[in-house]
């Protein structure tokens, strides 16, 4: 009986029936059968060292190679399952960042999309375990004439294993400069092509130079097609979700406008009916009385008619303003407005109107300066704030108007000594049809539109409007406007 020593020290014996045939042959055949069945850990005799042992070594190397390939495929299958489970691009890329480290080295992964009909590459997502990132979402560069264009044309990934050297040769490469400043030293750039259409790039980057091998390219290419399709699917899903959200916002705006319209109709029916009826009654009375009325009574009735028609005209103007604002057709005739002169005129207008209640309207000293504004629209705002202050102030109180010039903007305020406004009511104060629980002290009419219109007028001028108030401590309404000198 002939005995050979195997690679593990096992003794291999010829049972004598082969008349000198090598006992390794049936073992090699058995190993091959086991290999076909997916068993890669084989005990293959390699001695004595002769031509037949070369076959054993080849069989061993094949088993090792197949085992490595099998393990890689297992990893890829796990990765595929993970990224397939993602619906949105960000979720998919997070999974890529978590799982790809098993097959490709990196400290950073970036994903950029090809946009604007193939003209621009725009960074969509990036993640790194390094302390800083300078090349982040939103960074963009032209595709045409760039090194990325060549990658798309060939469809082949690119390895740069010394980015510092690459930057010395291409000092105009802004994206390379940014990632080198992050601490990146080598990169693997992979094109993403879905159904024959280039959609972007996946960038693997390492802080270690010479981190990438052709083997990494081969590994990525095994999953590139599927990953491209999954990312494109995620991008389309995100677009659909954005479109759905936009439609929902439009529907919500339509519902709001419909509510505004219905409120307009209700308000017009209520707030116009009474003054129209009063005017009609007064006019009928004048006609019927004829010359029998004394002059004083006739004058009082005519003054009441004028007051009622003025109220109706103001209401109609408010409705027209709201219509323009909501339709987006409000136009401003901007011109320099001297703040001091403008406020002096406003206070003068309201001094007489406030006199019957014994209310004083005072203007504190105003610095010189101008704003760019539409004088008529700005007058609407200040008139509304002063008239509201007079309405809600007790008889004999004072309304104070102030103007402060700050760096870049003006702050104009109107302070009253009224009952104040609760925090709850302040939340809706600048919305349409908001009426306070507190009634005007002289029972003056209110449409609930003035402050809402004022807010939109101020915002159209690039300013802000607000209120400072506490119950029992009066209110200060204010608005800001950009200083012309700052513009």
Query: What value does the average pLDDT take?
Result: 80
Number of strands: 15
List low-confidence stretches. Answer: 1-19
Measured by DSSP, the beta-strand proportion falls in 15-25%
Query: CATH fold name of the largest domain, please?
Result: Beta-Lactamase
The biggest beta sheet reads:
6 strands, antiparallel
Assign the CATH superfamily of the largest domain. Answer: GAF domain
What is the domain tally? 4
- String of helices and strands: EEHHHEEEHEHHEEHHEHEEHEEHHEE
Q: Roughly what percent helix?
A: 40-55%
By helix and strand content, what is the structural category?
alpha+beta
Number of helices: 12
Distance between the termini: 106 Å
**For the largest beta sheet, what order do the strands appear in spatially?**
5-4-3-8-7-6
Task: Give the class-level CATH name of the largest domain.
Answer: Alpha Beta
Global geometry: elongated
CATH architectural designation of the largest domain: 2-Layer Sandwich
Rg is: 41 Å
